[in-house]
Amino acid sequence: MSISSFTTSTQTLLNPTHFYRHKRRLRALLIEGQPWFVVRDLGKLMQAFLEERLARNLDPDQLCRAVLRDDNGLAEEVELLSESGVYATLIHFHHPENRCIRQWISHSVVPSLRDASGSVSSDAPRRRLLRWEQQQLSVLDWQGQVWVPLGELPQVMRIG
């Protein structure tokens, strides 16, 4: 099945994973093992209106439509952007903050999506997201302990 023509019926609503950056939500999910992101959410993160522009600037295989379960459990049809489409968009709509968004997506969001899919062996370290009050911290769960990346330590110290 071609991913650009991916559709789903309302009986099989897809459940996205919610990620937060500066209290702004980014919904993402794996489709056929590949990360896809809600265009509207990415636009809010970038503070740019993307919906109309992406169809002109990206290849057809980087966009698709799908039906997701919204916060109330109802069907919501959304436009999705592939991982390569996200990176192309961040380059095309240049803004200094986009580098930080790209790093967050490539270092936290995508690995968390893949780890949550269960594709990693059970004895290997697993990335987890600790969440509280629309904030989250990417940590490793390994051998029964939670490991905080050194770069995230200042954020942890402000919380506690």
Automatic annotation (TrEMBL):
InterPro entries: BRO_N_domain. Transmembrane segments: none annotated. PANTHER family: BRO FAMILY PROTEIN, DNA-BINDING PROTEIN-RELATED-RELATED. This is Prophage antirepressor. PROSITE patterns: BRO_N (PS51750). Residues 11-117 form the Bro-N domain. It comes from Pseudomonas panipatensis.
